[in-house]
Here is the input.
Amino acid sequence: MAVAGLIFSNIHNSSVPELTSVRTIASIPFGCRYRLIDFPLSAMVNSGVTKIGVIAHNNYQSLMDHIGTGKDWDLARRSGGIRILPPYITAYNSANGGKLYTTRLEALMGVTNFIARCTEDHVVLSDCDSVCSVNLRDVISAHEKSGADVTVITRTVRKDDVLPSEDATVVECDVNGRVIKFAGCTNNFDEAEISTNIVVAKRTFLLDIINDAASHGYTKFYLEALANRLEHARINAYHFDGVFLQIGSLVSYYKASMQLLTSDVRNELFNAPEKMVYTKLRNSSPTVYQSGSTVKNSLVADGCCIEGTVENSIIFRGVHVSRGAVVKNSILLQDTYVGTDTALNCVITDKNVVIRDGRNLSGHESVPFFLSKGSMI
Amino acid sequence: MFKKKECVAMLLAGGQGSRLYALTEKTAKPAVSFGGKYRIIDFPLSNCINSGVDTVGVLTQYQPLVLNDYIGNGLPWDLDRAQGGVKILPPYQGKNGADWYKGTANAIYQNLQFIYNYDPDYVLILSGDHIYKMDYDKMLKAHKDKGADCTIAVIDVPIEEASRFGIMSVDSEDRIFKFAEKPKNPDSTKASMGIYIFSKECLAKYLIQDAEDENSSNDFGKNIIPAMLANGEGLYAYSFSGYWKDVGTIDSLWEANMDLLGAHPTLNLADESWRIYSRHTANAPQYVGENAVIDNSSITEGCEIYGTVRNSVLGTGVKVLAGAVVEDSVIFDNVIIGENAKVSYSIIDSDVTVGASATVGKSRTDAKGITVIGTGIDVPVGTELADAKMIYNAKDLKEA
Here is the structure.
């Protein structure tokens, strides 16, 4: 059965302020050559979802630039394809007084038209603050088979795990996987089942709860709109225990990036059949490792020139590591230039950062040293 | 409705490239891999779009499947256009019967209608055999300035190598007065690069004449150019200086790949002012393992390196497992080099698996020549493959 997709590009923007001051969370660069939105987008495309709306809020220039026509995801289509859904505000007449949405439910209210005009039976919703290897095809078929109105993908979190920064929702189920309770998340638990915020819903049901919410003034998706329907509708949970990297802060961004250096995570995210991750192409030339370079346990994109030493690091496209430089435990975003005889440890550089010769910068795993876009040090 | 174009390019991509042996068993030469993530045809196609030529007919004949698939709609080169763009032109059946392309001139002759559709003033003839970066627009300007009927791009070659090329003798105005195909005693060092700009009317006239001549071998170098010279048409040489390499042989293909390496490579693909575009596949970034050693090499997306790579160019998705050594080699896409295997001075085509502890080729200093393994071959565990071997299929492996 046909399924449409909806991606929230701004929810959780505030969780990584360092990286979202100039972009949406969806367009945060991740994993050498990707942006976070590439993961939910590719998961949808790989599962046969070819009509996708991307709900945007603010700061979405970099997102539009990244998505382009959608060709790189095979989403430039006559029918369907990808559409960016910017906020629709009129100065005179707006349900919420011309304000931008602040919650998931309000964001959905803003795109009621898109949902209403779809002809697909189901809609899959996803955020952009995580990197997840779930096979949506399996989820969609489980959803259809069960005849559920809504299927919420959940995962188990333990004490000290990274939680989504806003609206982490604890999901309680009965033995049949039917949700019996949604609750807000307190930090007081040893183990809890929370929503991944990846949800498959019957389109008509989704429209129904959105309209209902609008007339009752609800603002919370789980705790109000869904919770009120628990009794009469069938809301299921789908437990997922594969790779799920939650990005809720700069530290968790750092940790999630470093997870890519483990082969299990890489294999599950990139190397499984039907799990290609698509991204905007940049036409970089291959990376050249010069004589005298040393690279160990690192993930490197194309278009780089490595003359120095790189260890346990994530190197994005077009990065230059000069002779005598030692880069360790660091994440260098696109077109970072590292001068000669520099030493970097636990550093995150945003795009186009220049580190001049002889600099010695160090952060710590718990507080990575961050250099903002275009800065020179 | 077709929109008029000033210049249409015709890219001859039908050649078999028989001197590349196993590498062109299943693909046409222009589709042979180069430089990790490129194919030979990326160079003329990228040159076209960078020079403002946005209408390119690609003439295919020999093993076109890979090439057709690779070119697709032309999007990677920005050649998916509503007007013009890249078009594949295979041989076809006409009213008077079907014909293969009998020669370079015949291939263009059979597609004159494609050229007429765009009503161009000039026709650029290219081949898919060379690695170079060239601004055709400058050449077109020279063609117009001279008021030429035909302009031939030439490059200076050492006099001792001149007898391998088509050699032009020119006067002080760069007007060609003599053309000799592979002369024994060359009297010039200006070698034809196989790049021609013709004024359309003149090209059509000579192609039609040539087609009527049953004794002609329908070749630009052998027939068209000599005929034009004999008739006193205005043929001019356009001198090109820069990187240009015919990669028609195993040795030259290997050398051109090596030209990408070093601190100051003779062929720089990272130069953003003249990009070479290619069709990408969605591969993960390259991973370099804890014990990997990489020295003076070019590595691209999808590769996983756990062993040692020296002075080599690796294609997408190549895996070099622990203890394996790859040196002085060119490895095409999706090759797996097994644990403790050793690959020296070789070219390995795509989808080959080199079994654990196998040895392929000899070190460059001792080897008689380059070892080549054709696409899709499994080299069994522990195999020892001597230097200068050409492996087309599994049978050759047993004999070797």
Summary: Chain B touches chain A at residues 35-37, 75-76, 260-263, 265, 269-270, 275-278, 280, 282-301, 309, 313-314 (CB under 8 Å). The CA atoms of residues 33 and 39 of chain B lie 4 Å apart. The longest strand of chain B covers residues 190-199. The mean pLDDT of chain B is 95.
